[in-house]
């Protein structure tokens, strides 16, 4: 029974499906096909409803009235003289708006019936006719009204001539025209003219009804689907209708209403311009993608600019002036559009383009026909039906193009939907949709795998089931911000994903939430690690310099007392040098661990150098900080550091400063650094403390102020030079050599010596600019006062190590030497021994260039560094300046005497001169003479002098004030002539 019921139901369903298919095929294929076939058959073979036998073209004799002053009698007389000349059937007014007189004979169409003369020009504005025999008025008319036997018909006027009994044999008429008008006349019988008028009305109703219906349908469809291209198409269809109406001559009305004649010319001009712009706009919208790919949008832009010009011309020019502008601009636009269409046909070969090409071809051919007809009298279209066919066919073809475009867009959307669905399924990130209650509507495989969600159950789960508390509210707030915002949130404890981190993007769409989710746990861990490394030392896990500076800045903003400890390891370099960096790294780790074990947990500990640590002691008074630092010194220095089987003893020095509210970060670090350096050098307990207001603290503050003043990439005001004489022991009164020393006069009037100025300039990085200023100033001074320096053989000028390592500085000073080349021979550039040996090759090149320029080189502070006599022979210096520490104590310590004696002998054997500085008493001077030193410099000879004193001095010995020293120098002058002569010989052979 059940099986029978099943088969019965199956047969019923198959029968129903067949009927549905049959009805569908009948409605979609058969009926439209029959309608189309019947339309074609009726159009080709069925007789027309208002068929007429046609008209007779009347021959005209035409007389232009350029002055608009002829009377009917004068015009008739002038035309009578032309009767022997050939007549014309069609006369062009050539855009003239002055009157035209024309004379014609009235033909007999049907015996015994009146003849009707039609003046079909749609451009005719006025018409008036007279009986040529009697000049009796027959009637007149214009676009506002008619009288007599003249009445309006179709696009023009008609004249009713009575039956032949009383009818005139000839008629004289006067007409005025606007635009590209043609003067012609047609003779009709009353019956045929009535049928022709009905045919005209039928065609106008057909085109108006068809295009308006199509335009309204397209417009409504466009509004419903929000397709603005079709709005343009609907407006273009109306423009096509008006253009066809103009061509047929019934554009004086709109949907059965008469348009005021005064507005017709402006309306026609506006119609042409607007239709042009709509055509270009529709073309651009339909083929925007293709034109963008072709790269010819600039050509379309030219056509668009043409439309703007045409619109301006329509608003400002008279009709007769506008028509030539219309022809020129529309011809250019047609050429460009034809080129672009041909290009699109060749490259795209799409059906949309082909349909649009066909539509535009009909439109352009119709317009081209009108232009040729108006301009040259060449008529390509004849009769009233052809504009109808042109308008309807072009509109239908454009509709086909639009429909094809819609089909292509729908197919493209279908493909995109398929691609989107496939992308949704294979996307590596989680994609999902939630309803307004937070329940899952859709979820792609990536999200289900990410959240361990089964395919069948996700629709029953809520968003908050998988994420941390408050995640649903966070998601809603994120969706309100839009798709650009992003949120990171954690997983849920219940699902075991609390350690996971997710990146979320969401937006509202159609009442739902569309969102994407990515698992960024590894990225979050990496970012956290990067954030940690940005302010922490990876070796010791302490703060790095950036972290320390931030901690100091934060503490400086607090009002609570605090201190800053600067920790430096004294023997750490030996560990690295002897046992390698791995052992050194282990020691640093233990130092950091010991430090954190001693200080409070809320202190910030950081490593800012190889073996330098900082401790920001927050909320701590200076006395408490001192106790902690003493304990820290003991912990760091007492017990050895065990690394493998080795144990290292490392001492620590600490500089502790009491800091105040608002102190700058760099000032705090610099003060602590200075205290730490003092602790390393002089403190037995390895701890130096700077309290607020202490002398050392104030002194360091002044040094920092000086560094800041010199670090502004400009020369500070107050720099000046002094000169300390250098006396030759061979000829004390025959020489006036000296060393140039830098001084700085502070804003408070105090004068700072060269040492502090140079140290501050080196810390600020501005030493090269100061050295360049010193050299330029000295060279300029020597050049100005060379006539007063007859006894000067050399002028010593110090160069810092920072300047010698500055390539730009080196180029600048040698350029300066080239400018002062004649006086470079006076210069003796002093470079310290350690700087000279730091880069031996660079020093050798520098010395060679100075010698080539005529200058001299002296090695300053010789003996103070780690002297290597192996390299000394490679430096072709001219003099050695013995370090003053040996000179000042040589009379008290025989070892110093021996060292100075060895240096002098070394210099003599290497062909160099020796200069002893810091000579402060006559005994030292006498000892240096006995050893054989060539030159001496110090307070016993002269203190640094102003430049004016140098210029007025007779020699370096003239500055001596100590009697014992004067007696010793005088003893050196006997016998004077021999000594002077020996000095001159040494000058020529030696240093000078």
TrEMBL record:
InterPro entries associated with the record: Biofilm_reg_signaling, EAL_dom, EAL_sf, GGDEF_dom, Nucleotide_cyclase, PAS, PAS-like_dom_sf, PAS_4
Keywords: Membrane, Transmembrane, Transmembrane helix
Domain PAS as annotated: residue spans: 416-469
UniProt domain EAL: residue ranges: 699-958
Keyword check for Cell inner membrane: no
Transmembrane segments: 21-46, 205-224, 231-250, 270-287, 299-319, 325-346, 353-378
Pfam families: EAL, GGDEF, PAS_4
Source species, domain of life: Bacteria
PROSITE patterns in alphabetical order: EAL, GGDEF, PAS
Domain GGDEF: 560-692
CDD domains in UniProt: EAL, GGDEF, PAS
Record's protein name: Diguanylate cyclase/phosphodiesterase
Organism of this sequence: Paraburkholderia phenazinium
Lineage of origin: Bacteria, Pseudomonadati, Pseudomonadota, Betaproteobacteria, Burkholderiales
